[in-house]
Amino acid sequence: MRLIVGLGNPGDSYSKTRHNLGFLVLDCLAKRHNISIDIKKKKSLIGKMRFNNKKIIILKPQTFINLSGEAVLYMASFLRIQPQNIIVVCDDANLEFGNVSVKKYGSSGGHNGVKSLIKFLKADDFPRVRIGIGRPVSTQMPLESHVLGSFSKDEIRKLTPIFETACDMIEKILCGDIDSCIDTVVDSSQKELSTSL
Q1: Phi/psi zone of residue 167: left (φ > 0), alpha (ψ -120 to 50 degrees), beta?
Q2: Span 97-151, pLDDT tens digits
Q3: For a 10 Å CB count at each end of the chain, is N or C smaller?
Q4: Do 172 and 178 meet the contact criterion of CB atoms below 8 Å apart?
Q5: pTM for the full predicted model
């Protein structure tokens, strides 16, 4: 069994912000596999699917992002899933907008949601699919305002191929092909497709 966790903040006011890319990618994955993420369980919304002959649980923590580890620990403990079998999907301000990259383990990179997971799971060896949001254009804008800000019109036009690339990488990891994703940065921002965001 595998657990796929998207990081984000609950509530309509956060739904279309850069920090909610983890949630948005899971929505794309759910649509691709024709499932819903609507089962309410212990501070989370979950969905269930099968892929590559494995049972997969998809989870959106409904705590705020800096407490994501609390919800993930509960589900991982309940299902007896080890950290190595948890795939985390999150935004990353250290990557240029549109870049998608996979990290096998390591520090939080300054991401409060990942930091919370490391704290609660007492481990950092869970793979992450990281989606670049870049840094603020203005040096006067705090990073927090940038990550909690909405996408620009130009960014919205580029989101669909970014979501699809992230889903492709998730599926490669589920197929046991994570090594082909490591150290590969895919720039999906050059394609423009319509999106309903």
Answers
A1: alpha
A2: 989 999 999 998 889 999 999 999 999 999 999 999 998 877 778 888 888 999 9
A3: N
A4: yes
A5: 0.90
Q: For residue 141, how many other CB atoms are within 10 A of its CB? A: 12
Q: Which of 19, 33, 111, 146 is catalytic?
A: 19
Buried b (16+ CB within 10 A) or exposed e, 100-115: bbbbbeeebeebbbbb
Instruction: Show the domains of the chain with their CATH numbers.
Output: 2-187 (3.40.50.1470)
Q: What is the mean pLDDT of each run of 10 residues along the chain (197 residues)?
A: 96 92 97 95 94 94 95 95 96 92 90 96 96 84 87 90 94 89 69 48
Cβ pair 5, 61 in contact under 8 A: yes
Query: Cα 30–33–39 angle (5° rounding)?
Result: 45
